[in-house]
Amino acid sequence: MATPHIDAAHGAFAEICLMPGDPLRAKFIADSYLEQVECVTSVRNMFGFTGYYQGRRVSVMGSGMGIPSSAIYYHELMAYYGVETIIRVGTCGATLGAVNLNDIIFAQGACTDSTFNRNRFGGLDYAAIANFELLQIATARAAEYTSQFHVGNIFTTDRFYDADPNLNTLFERYRLLGVDMESAGLYSIAAEHGKRALSILTVSDHLIRGEHASAEQRQVGYQTMLKIALDTCLEL
Ligand code: HPA
């Protein structure tokens, strides 16, 4: 039952799928945290894997960067592969002074400059929100590992480069925590299919302070985030 972008067999995906942007990070997560790992799809090298985390069947797949790429995979997994829950495990740039490099952000909602949701929502402004149950479980797990986490609104942008620097001031004024490129699309797709989604992000850059986490620093925050995401899977 291949779809245009996924060549996995029917039933090859677990009901829960963790999704980083980078397909090689998906491979790293599968190799590091899952047992009995199988590579279930590799179209365009967008690798997807299924295995077991402490006995729970879990998949992990890359999404690519930005709503246009990631929405293809979110849609095909939810519409055709029986995926009920997607947890995005990504990075973001921070836009609030109270947020620091390597902090973990739970995107309760996602504003956007993308027309993706507006086009699908009759020209109106769609409030893209995380699934409440997932958010509750994940934040409870987070509190066991770290105090360096935040829950709130983020901004999903179509543009990594040439962003208007005044926007960061605007985001700060409205208490947005950070900027990614996928969450607003993920949330509307999950809602449309009656499924659950949550974006958990580690802060790789600080857009107000012009700071960048080193590769080593990033690894620490990222691993805490993965533990939170995987422990959340055990409760679903
Ligand atoms: N912009 C958008 N997405 C991001 C950024 C950023 O600065 N950093 C990490 N993901």
Would you write up a description of this structure?
With 236 residues, the chain is of the alpha/beta class. It has a single domain (16-234), classed as Nucleoside phosphorylase domain (Rossmann fold), CATH 3.40.50.1580. The protein contains seven helices and eleven strands. Strands 5-9-8-6-10 form a five-stranded mixed beta barrel, surrounded by four helices. Strand 2 (35-41) and strand 3 (48-53) form a beta hairpin. Helix 2 packs parallel to helix 6 (183-192). The chain is globular, with a radius of gyration of 17 Å. The mean pLDDT is 96.
Poorly predicted segments: none
SS element count, helices? 7
Number of strands: 11
Strand order of the largest sheet: 5-9-8-6-10
CATH third-tier fold name? Rossmann fold
State the major sheet: 5 strands, mixed, barrel
The percent range for helix content is 25-40%
Query: What small molecules does this complex bind?
Result: hypoxanthine
Order of helices and strands: EHEEEHEEHEHEHEHEEH
CATH superfamily: Nucleoside phosphorylase domain
Which secondary-structure class do the elements indicate? alpha/beta
Catalytic activity: a purine 2'-deoxy-D-ribonucleoside + phosphate = a purine nucleobase + 2-deoxy-alpha-D-ribose 1-phosphate; uridine + phosphate = alpha-D-ribose 1-phosphate + uracil; a purine D-ribonucleoside + phosphate = a purine nucleobase + alpha-D-ribose 1-phosphate
EC number: 2.4.2.1
Active site: 205 (proton donor)
Pfam family, one: PNP_UDP_1
